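stuck on this fold:
=====
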Amino acid sequence: MNVTGWGFDVHRFGGQPPVLLAGVVADAERGLEATSDGDVVAHAVADAVLGAASLGDLGDFFPSSDPMWTDADSMALLGTVQAAAAGVGLVVEHLDVTIIAERVRVAPIKDRIRAA
């Protein structure tokens, strides 16, 4: 069975640096407002995987109201999501990520993001 998940995430600038994209430092000077580290790529992929597996969304797994997730490593959260999806038989075969950023340069780090 083939399924498709779709994820989207956005955060405002203003939190503690750095801006991370798939665990890669994209901007060492600025940060994003978020409960976790605010990694929008990890969050969007996690939401897509959870949706495809019919497991809810990122907020169901890691509610922002729980201080346990303050400053959490979003790539580690994504690993937890992947394991949960595998637990219900979902195997991620392909994914595509579109990053829309006006103030962060993605081109210089896109290969590192892809590898992550």
Observations:
- The first strand starts at residue 19 and ends at 21.
- The helical segments are 40-52, 58-61, 74-87, 110-115.
- The two ends are 26 Å apart (CA to CA).
- The first helix runs from residue 40 to 52.
